[in-house]
């Protein structure tokens, strides 16, 4: 099975692109979803996170206060490294496990930090959703209700636009309408089906 790694900076539109692929019947495995599941209430990993960072990052219902924790680790590289060292091995293992169970021509693996963490070897092609940095900031501040300083800090913690584009096999430019973006996804869908056909022969 052809494995397409979908990545891009915050606010670029990865989730929208993933939905368009899912609408086309393509299996989508999202590491953000896995990241929530591996720290579900009662999980050993959530206990480790609480022990490392403090129980104040747990909400009354026992779930992880992801927004609060994110704000702290994005402004402290050492704490971010600690958190990622706890979460990323479990996320990676579950991502591979789910992909191995699929029997489809191709699947889309949504990995926001694919370039940053060097996970290119997990996929056959890297698909980058790209847009101007100014648009990333605008979307992020609007969607997540954060100020410019917070949004800038998140962008600074990620790979640069140039680094992502250098790693890309395919690029979706998301600076226009949803119809334009959907058409680009449809074009890539046809390409990936052709590539998957060649790969299985």
Provide a concise account of the structure shown.
With 201 residues, the protein is of the alpha/beta class.
Could you explain how this protein is built, in words?
With 201 residues, the chain is of the alpha/beta class. The radius of gyration is 17 Å and the shape is globular. It has a 5-stranded parallel β-sheet, sandwiched between helices. The protein starts with a strand and ends with a helix. The protein folds into 2 domains: 1-27 and 102-196, 3-Layer(aba) Sandwich (Rossmann fold); 35-97, no CATH class. It has helices spanning 14-23, 31-37, 44-53, 66-74, 77-100, 114-117, 133-144, 148-157, 161-167, 178-199, and strands spanning 2-7, 28-30, 106-110, 125-130, 170-173. The longest helix is centred in the middle third of the chain and has 24 residues, at 77-100. The protein is built from 10 helices and 5 strands. Helix 3 (44-53) runs antiparallel to helix 5. 57% of the residues lie in helices and 12% in strands.
């Amino acid at each position: 099975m052809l494995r397409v790694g979908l990545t891009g900076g915050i606010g670029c539109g990865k989730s929208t692109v993933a939905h368009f692929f899912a609408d086309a019947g393509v299996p989508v495995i999202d590491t953000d979803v896995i990241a929530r599941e591996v720290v579900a209430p009662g999980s050993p990993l959530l206990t480790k996170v609480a022990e490392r960072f403090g129980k104040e990052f747990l909400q009354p219902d026992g779930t992880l206060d992801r927004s609060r924790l994110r704000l702290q680790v994005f402004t402290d590289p050492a704490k971010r490294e600690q958190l990622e060292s706890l979460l990323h091995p479990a996320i990676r293992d579950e991502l591979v496990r789910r992909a191995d169970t699929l029997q489809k021509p191709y699947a889309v693996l949504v990995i926001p930090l694919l370039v940053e963490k060097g996970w290119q070897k997990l996929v056959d092609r890297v698909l980058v959703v790209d847009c101007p940095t100014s648009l990333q900031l605008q979307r992020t501040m609007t969607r997540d209700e954060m100020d410019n300083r917070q949004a800038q800090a998140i962008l600074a913690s990620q790979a640069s636009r140039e680094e992502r584009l250098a790693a890309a096999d395919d690029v979706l430019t998301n600076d226009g309408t949803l119809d334009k973006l959907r058409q680009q996804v449809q074009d890539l869908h046809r390409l990936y089906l052709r590539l998957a056909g060649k790969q299985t022969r």
